[in-house]
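We were asked to recover a plausible sequence for a given structure. The inputs and outputs are reproduced exactly as logged, with field labels preserved.

PROBLEM: sequence recovery
POSITIONS: 465
GIVEN STRUCTURE:
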């Protein structure tokens, strides 16, 4: 924090000043800081705490400073010696110093009835209000890409997996729509965070409020916020909205990482289920045949750094007594990093996935070569009246018989089926048709073509075509 010469006889050590400066990190909050200051000084004039002429002068100068900063016309230096640049230990003091340069002593009135504690808290909330809608939009964009792919490949059957072992046949569209559902929850989490972030802490001052007759609700309205943070101590010491946002980022990145991992598997020579467009793959520096899924791998890798941002914030806040502590200066870098990384990852995943082509013939080949329909054998016996656990045991024995005979379930002769149960008849082979298997699914949300078609229609309506 800034030290006044009235209290301190010795200036802050240059290295200590540089160590404590946050200007290189928080300078990106200049728009929010100026927006909050304009609302604050407008309210002060309305409440007759500042003369109207002074408020107009300050507002005009702040608008000019915003233009200067957007154009890069105000060189800033973090603390210490300025070297011809405007020196300050954070963006808030840099803007105030530039204001005083422009309008003189009247600029010093701006900070009336305000502390940097509530000022910083407001800037972060305004930043969240600006960035979270970007995340929501990018989530929607990725969902649309996935739904479009599901429509294109809506009739394709693929092996479904548990434990990375082939389990049962599912529609590829059903698999892709599972991610659409995941990302829908991510979007909802961002929206919930925005709802709680959109409250003004301004007017809480340092921690106890102010003796000036300010109108906090009026300031909030000027900022387009629906309300205020009621408790002044909570207003300056709370970072829940920041942590919630980064938590939403971490969950989104987890879902992106799972999708990225599947892409990495699917495009490998061992799987050969899909191919990524060349514009989103790279080669090897030594092996000319390689086409590496680097963008998917980077999304998977960047997930770890967003997890780190979340852990850093939770650790930062876990032991802090009320109210503001300087530790909280360290909340901005993980917030910015988490949002930047998540927004970039959502964007690249949507662009990359739009180029993915699925190998439908390869899926058909795999459906004929494994025991994906073993559960159908058990269900067949259940429909004939056998208890499920008994049917499960028999189906497992039949699978082992096929392994021993090196044949598929469809190739096993009927007499061998009847060796295990007299309930088997020629209609067992109908149960071993993957498409018939899917059509027999009746539960809501299943992989049946009818349910998947309904899901596609629902998502197309929700997301737009």
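RECOVERED SEQUENCE:
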């Amino acid at each position: 924090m800034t030290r006044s010469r009235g209290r301190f006889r010795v200036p802050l050590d240059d290295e200590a000043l540089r160590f404590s400066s946050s200007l290189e990190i928080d300078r990106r909050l200049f728009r929010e800081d100026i927006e909050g200051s304009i609302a604050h000084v407008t309210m002060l004039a309305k409440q007759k705490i500042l003369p109207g002429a002074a408020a107009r002068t300050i507002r005009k100068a702040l608008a000019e400073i915003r233009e200067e900063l957007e154009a890069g016309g105000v060189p800033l230096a973090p603390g210490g010696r300025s070297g011809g640049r405007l020196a300050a230990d954070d963006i808030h003091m840099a803007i105030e110093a530039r204001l005083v340069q422009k309008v003189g002593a009247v600029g010093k009135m701006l900070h009336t009835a305000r502390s940097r504690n509530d000022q910083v808290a407001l800037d972060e909330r305004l930043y969240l209000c600006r960035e979270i809608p970007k995340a929501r939009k990018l989530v929607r964009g990725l969902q649309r890409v996935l739904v479009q792919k599901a429509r294109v490949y809506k009739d394709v059957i693929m092996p479904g997996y548990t434990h990375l072992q082939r389990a049962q046949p599912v529609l590829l569209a059903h698999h892709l729509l599972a991610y659409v559902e995941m990302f829908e929850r991510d979007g909802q989490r961002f929206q919930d965070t925005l709802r709680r972030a959109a409250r003004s802490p301004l007017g809480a001052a340092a921690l106890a409020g102010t003796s000036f007759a300010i109108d906090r609700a009026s300031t909030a309205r000027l900022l387009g916020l629906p309300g205020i943070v009621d408790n002044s101590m909570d207003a300056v010491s709370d970072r829940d909205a920041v942590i919630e946002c980064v938590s939403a980022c971490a969950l989104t990145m987890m879902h992106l990482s799972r999708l990225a991992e599947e892409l990495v598997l699917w495009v490998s020579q061992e799987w050969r289920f899909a191919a990524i467009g060349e514009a989103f793959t790279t080669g090897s520096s030594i092996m000319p045949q390689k086409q590496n899924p680097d963008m998917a791998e980077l999304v998977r890798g960047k997930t770890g750094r967003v997890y780190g941002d979340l852990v850093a914030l939770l650790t930062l806040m876990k032991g802090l007594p009320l109210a503001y502590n300087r530790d909280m200066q360290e909340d901005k870098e993980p917030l910015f990093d988490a949002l930047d990384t998540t927004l970039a990852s959502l964007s690249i995943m949507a662009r990359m996935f739009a180029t993915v082509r699925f190998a439908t013939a390869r899926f058909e080949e795999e459906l004929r070569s494994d025991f994906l329909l073993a559960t159908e054998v058990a269900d067949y016996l259940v429909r004939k009246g056998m208890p499920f656990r008994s049917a499960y045991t028999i189906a497992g024995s039949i699978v082992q018989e096929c392994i021993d005979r090196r044949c598929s379930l469809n190739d096993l002769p009927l007499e061998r089926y009847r060796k295990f149960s007299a309930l088997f008849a020629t209609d067992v082979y109908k149960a071993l048709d993957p498409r018939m298997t899917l059509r027999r699914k009746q539960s809501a949300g299943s992989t049946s073509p009818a349910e998947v078609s309904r899901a596609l229609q629902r998502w197309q309506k929700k997301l737009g075509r």
